[in-house]
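User: Hello! My lab partner asked me to get a predicted holo structure for this protein. The small molecule is manganese (II) ion, SMILES included with the sequence. Please write out the structure tokens.
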Amino acid sequence: MNSTGSISQENYLKAIFKLQNEHGIASNQAIAEKLAATPAAVTGMLRKLTELEWVEHTAYQGAVLTPKGKQIATSTIRKHRLWEVFLVEKLQFKWDAVHQWAEELEHIGDADFTERLDAFLGCPATDPHGDPIPDANGDWAGNERVILADVLACNQEFTVRGVSNSASDFLRHLDALNIQLGKQFSVVEHFPFDGSWEWKDESGVNVRVSREVASQLLVELNRPQMSSKSQ
Amino acid sequence: MNSTGSISQENYLKAIFKLQNEHGIASNQAIAEKLAATPAAVTGMLRKLTELEWVEHTAYQGAVLTPKGKQIATSTIRKHRLWEVFLVEKLQFKWDAVHQWAEELEHIGDADFTERLDAFLGCPATDPHGDPIPDANGDWAGNERVILADVLACNQEFTVRGVSNSASDFLRHLDALNIQLGKQFSVVEHFPFDGSWEWKDESGVNVRVSREVASQLLVELNRPQMSSKSQ
DNA sequence: ATAATTTTTTAATCTTGCCTAAACAATAGC
DNA sequence: GCTATTGTTTAGGCAAGATTAAAAAATTAT
Ligand SMILES: [Mn+2]
Ligand SMILES: [Mn+2]
Ligand SMILES: [Mn+2]
Ligand SMILES: [Mn+2]
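Assistant: Hello! Below are the structure tokens for the protein in complex with manganese (II) ion.
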């Protein structure tokens, strides 16, 4: 029941999985972009993955995963995120430095290996960037995280739960702003002029956050939104 | 100062390193055997490694590592053995199951990664099979381990310190005999007829050990060899 | 509807690492 | 010293995964 692909094949399946979740189908071009390859390379690999019955590919249309393909993709993502937890929690890496290594580690080990790693780490629910870790069946709890831009009310309290961009420079910028996952803020003001925000953290310290930053944060609303519409 | 090769290149360097330590030079054929490749493949790779200045290869003679090549080889071996410690100590793998995964993990990570892993594991001196773990410079403490066949005196006490064969079936056989690294025995008798041994463990239990098993165990003599030459 | 643009596919090549079979060196036997 | 054997290298090829450039299909614009 559990088979596995080559490193390259697994990377394609991961990319298709993520694109499919976003757009329903994975276009040739989007896959190429995600993997930093050429569209011609994608056409070639899709032929191979279709033969393996891990994707269904309609020429000129795009690709979707078969159940088997989805299983390999989620298992790879599970390993990726578990390894990221390991690197941060056990090896004390900063959260902006783990992705590159997880990208290699994710292709190692079988189901038994993964379950041992998971148990060793205490079955974490999310990775260091707040992304959910699929269980052994490839499922994960639906998450309540929402893009900050949707939270317009003043005094709204929220907790930072994730990032929608895990690039190192963004993560280091969050470090500089002293914004960590799990930290709680309330909205002081939102400036339509440039889309920036002012927040207050739990110890009463105010923070200014640009639109660029806020739009890439995933937050959880803390209480059934107090009805104070305007300050 | 620290560069790194492809997976295949690192495997060649490891093989050459080990053969060079045993025979002074690594013959084409011995390398091929160790890597389960053909001599023709070895010739090809040696050309490449020579260009990289990681080995010196004289046609029809054999290969030796340059300092750079030795550095990559020992770093790979260091990673291999550290990962084996991780797998046994942290993920509770049996010692006969870790080599295959370490063979893949050894190619991941840079010097910083390796030092973090080492620190996390408490800077172990040996891997689960008793093999010494090179330090960050590729050096390790000379070990006092000796093949059991050289220990002929009765009543000689010794501690099992390693195996010269890490094949799964041998390791599982040791498990069956209840022989673990660090366990102490004394020689009761040696039977020249078939080369087998009788030992007594610390709690007075006697064990019979075949020549095949004894000849693949590395032991440390416990005391300045009592001069009882014959019983 | 037709033309222009974008996207995908095909075709021809490249690289890495491997193989088999044949040619070539080195060694050993006599 | 010549011959047989062993070990090494060359030659020719294959597979996976990529690339570039050109052809074909789909989409968008007029
Ligand atoms: Mn990641
Ligand atoms: Mn990957
Ligand atoms: Mn090993
Ligand atoms: Mn290896």
